[in-house]
Amino acid sequence: MKVAISLPDTVFNAAEQLAHQLKMSRSQLYAEALSAYLGSRGATAVTAKLNAVYGSESSQVDSDLAQAQIQSISHEAW
User: Fold this and answer.
1) Could you give the 3-state DSSP secondary structure of residue 25?
2) Distance (Å, rounded) from C-alpha 29 to C-alpha 22?
3) Residue range 31-58, pLDDT digits in tens
4) What is the pLDDT of residue 28?
5) Taking a C-beta distance cutoff of 8 angstroms, is the pair 48, 41 a contact?
6) DSSP state at residue 57
7) pTM score
8) Which residue has the higher pLDDT, 75 or 16?
9) Cα dist. 15→6, 29, 39, 52, 65 in Å?
10) H-type helices in 1-78, by residue range?
């Protein structure tokens, strides 16, 4: 899909240089950069949702489960 956007000259020039250094097209650079940005924002959204859940729910580990976890690693050397 073609998209027209406006960029500050400094950002455009830096992107042109980077695309040249990486031997990739401007379109590929922008697509990869936007994909990375969206991926990082997606992780942030998941973290925010988990924080909302654990902010209102108890995060106390069941005592039997905690004991089983401790026993499963008791042979580990720390």
Assistant:
1) coil
2) 9
3) 999 999 988 888 888 888 888 888 887 7
4) 96
5) no
6) S
7) 0.56
8) 16
9) 13, 8, 20, 37, 52
10) 9-22, 26-56, 63-73
